[in-house]
Every structure is written in structure tokens, then in C-alpha cells.
Amino acid sequence: MLVQTQKSEIHQTRLGCCSSAEESNTWKRILSAAMAAAVIASSSGLPAMAELNKFEADTRGEFGIGSAAQYSSADLSKTVHSNENFRRANFTSADMRESDFSGSTFNGAYLEKAVAYKANFSGADLSDTLMDRMVLNEANLTNAVLVRSVLTRSDLGGAKIEGADFSDAVIDLLQKQALCKYANGTNPLTGVDTRKSLGCGNSRRNAYGSPSSPLLSAPPQRLLGRDGFCDEKTGLCDAK
């Protein structure tokens, strides 16, 4: 009787082991099937994701309202990027020497400390850009729109500005005086006279330079002359 009981217990133990093993195998099969389904689903979405990424790259930014492109400290010298969209892009300290950006859109972009010697920005939209401490020596700004751009401590020596619109731009007074010596033309897009946009002559609008100028601590009693300068030392003229 004892032997039969022991045999029965051994048999039940074996059945329990087999049952546990079968359950374990069942869960393994379920897990494997789930993982396979996940892989298939993700693989089927790859072409759609690639198309979406390409669409975002083409439209430059979420909802096509701007570019999050980063060109900080990038070497863009002697490259051609005409008629491209660089809205809100970052060009901080980028090397843009002798590059062609004609007709491109930069409004809202960051270009502080960028070097753009002899760069071509003709017809470009540079409105609302931060161009602080930028090198623009001999740059071509013909017919460019620089409305509300910030050009504090930037060097525009020898820049071509015929037809450029500097309305409400922030420019250091001495730099503005230098530009007024040869500013001419009318912007074909905005219809604004270049000299008027710079505040050349005895117009009070834009006549006092930038907020970085100490002259703005109080309204100056003297204004820019007809040619942008009178006094060789101060570059200012007495108001008539």
C-alpha cells in the first residue's frame, strides 16, 4: 500500500513538472509572437517615417514656418545657397566668406559673430535677424531687406547697399554715418529709399544709432547732416 502511494505521488509530481513546462513554453510562444508582430509593425512604418522626415527637411521646420537648421561655427565659405529658406536658423560664428546667399530668406535667424566677407546677400530677406558683431566687409547687400535687424558692433566697411532697406534696424552710429556717405537706391520689394531707411540727413527717424550708443542716454541736440557727416571729429551736424 505504501509503495502504491509513493508511486502515485511521483506520478503527480511528474505531471506537475510537465504542466509547468508546458505553461512556460506557451508564454514563450506568446512573447515571441508579440515581438515578431512589433517588428513587422515598425518595419512597415519605416517608409512613412522616411517620407515624413524628407517632408520636414524640405519644408524647413515644424509646419513649414521656419528652419531649425544648425550652422554654428560651420565652414560655408565659397558655397552656393541662393534662394534657400534659412528662417530662424543658427549661423553663430559661421564662416560665410565669399558665399552666395542671394535671394535667400533669413528672417529670425541668428548670425552673430559670423564672418561674411564678400558674401552675396543681394535680394535676401534679413529682416528680424540678429547680426551682432558680424563681419560684412565688402558684402553685397544690394536690394536686401534688413528691417528690424540688429547690427550692433558689426563691420559693414565697403558693403554694397544700393536699394537695401534698413528700416528700424539697430546700427551703431559711426557705422551708420559711414553708410550714409554713399547710400542710394530704393528697395524693389518694400519701396523704401535706402537713405531714408538709414535716417540719413536731418530726419529724426533712425538718426541716433543703436541702443549701444551713449548718445541715446538723452536725445542729442545735433543730428546727421545731409551727407551723413559734418564734423570730422564727431560726424555730427548742428540742427538747423
Number of helices: 3
The low-pLDDT segments are: 59-65, 203-225
Terminal-residue CA separation: 131 Å
Quaternary structure annotation: single chain
Largest sheet: 2 strands, antiparallel
- Judging from the principal axes of the Cα atoms, what is the shape? elongated
Write the H/E string, N to C: HHHEE
Could you describe the 3D structure shown?
This protein is mainly alpha-helical. Helix content is 30%, strand content 2%. It contains three helices and two strands. A two-stranded antiparallel sheet has the order 1-2. The longest helix is centred in the first third of the chain and has 58 residues, at 2-59. The protein starts with a helix and ends with a strand. Mean pLDDT is 75; it is low at 59-65 and 203-225. It comes from Camelina sativa. InterPro entries: 5peptide_repeat, Thylakoid_lumenal_pentapeptide. This is Thylakoid lumenal protein TL20.3, chloroplastic-like isoform X1. It holds the Pfam family Pentapeptide.
